């Protein structure tokens, strides 16, 4: 108990780490959506090259460990491109690319869940394909995508714990700093685990609640 009390003395420091975790997660989801929408459209387009590039991106980032992706972006990419990134920049880029691959498939499934006849009817009314996507398809697809989007957000929050390896002052990194100072791992990491839980549990409960509201006949 003594060491838990000592750990809680550094609670503001842990809160700063939690804030960085939340900010990077939100940024990764935002950039991931910006990347995911056009990639999802490319995956279902009539252009073979666009389909191939989209599939290669999704398959690569969904099937390789995000830890390796992050290390490659931070350590190897500067050797290949000459562009050096800070830990925060590398972390945000890595998490965006990783979440974007999952978001692509979520968006693609949501778009395909909208009845094709609605898009054809909108085209018949004189809308172009971009207008059909923006005004007809995406608003309906969004309602179907929300649970999956919530799950990707939860996954992204948990994956940000990897940012500690590139010195981003996220929750895990700050917990490790406290562990080194106190020379105790159990208490700081336990407190950090409960702080991750406090961030992800409301998201999980929100997803479950939304799914039940969408399907009221299912307990």
UniProtKB/TrEMBL annotation:
Alphabetic keyword roster: Amino-acid transport, Cell membrane, Membrane, Transmembrane, Transmembrane helix, Transport
Localization in the cell: Cell membrane
GO molecular function terms listed in the Swiss-Prot or TrEMBL record: transmembrane transporter activity
Keyword match Transmembrane: yes
PROSITE patterns the UniProt entry points to: ABC_TM1 (PS50928)
Organism for this UniProt entry: Amycolatopsis sulphurea
Cited InterPro entries: AA_ABC_transptr_permease_3TM, ArtM/GltK/GlnP/TcyL/YhdX-like, MetI-like, MetI-like_sf
PANTHER family in the cross-refs: GLUTAMINE TRANSPORT SYSTEM PERMEASE PROTEIN GLNP, MEMBRANE COMPONENT OF AMINO ACID ABC TRANSPORTER
One Gene Ontology term, aspect cellular component: ATP-binding cassette (ABC) transporter complex
CDD domains in alphabetical order: TM_PBP2 (cd06261)
Keyword Coiled coil belongs to the record: no
Its membrane topology: Multi-pass membrane protein
Membrane-spanning residues: 20-42, 189-210
Top-level taxon of the source organism: Bacteria
Protein's name according to its UniProt entry: Amino acid ABC transporter membrane protein (PAAT family)
Short name of any one Pfam family annotated for the protein: BPD_transp_1
Family statement: Belongs to the binding-protein-dependent transport system permease family. HisMQ subfamily.
All copies of domain ABC transmembrane type-1, residue ranges: 18-207
């Amino acid at each position: 108990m003594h060491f838990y009390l000592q750990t809680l003395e550094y609670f503001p420091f842990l809160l700063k780490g939690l804030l960085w975790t939340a900010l990077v997660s939100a940024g990764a989801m935002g950039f991931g959506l910006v990347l995911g929408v056009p990639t999802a459209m490319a995956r279902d387009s009539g252009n073979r090259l666009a389909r191939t590039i989209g599939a290669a991106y999704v398959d690569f980032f969904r099937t390789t460990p995000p830890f390796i992706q992050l290390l490659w972006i931070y350590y190897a990419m500067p050797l290949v491109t000459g562009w050096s990134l800070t830990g925060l920049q590398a972390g945000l880029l890595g998490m965006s690319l990783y979440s974007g691959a999952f978001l692509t498939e979520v968006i693609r499934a949501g778009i395909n869940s909208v009845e094709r006849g609605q898009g054809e009817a909108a085209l018949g009314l004189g809308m172009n394909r971009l207008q059909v996507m923006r005004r007809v398809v995406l608003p309906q697809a969004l309602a179907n995508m929300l649970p999956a989007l919530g799950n990707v957000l939860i996954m992204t929050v948990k994956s940000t714990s990897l940012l500690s390896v590139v010195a981003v002052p996220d929750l895990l990194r700050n917990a490790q700093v406290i562990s080194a100072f106190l020379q105790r791992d159990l208490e700081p990491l336990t407190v950090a685990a409960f702080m991750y839980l406090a961030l992800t549990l409301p998201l999980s409960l929100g997803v479950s609640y939304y799914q039940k509201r969408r399907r009221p006949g299912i307990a």
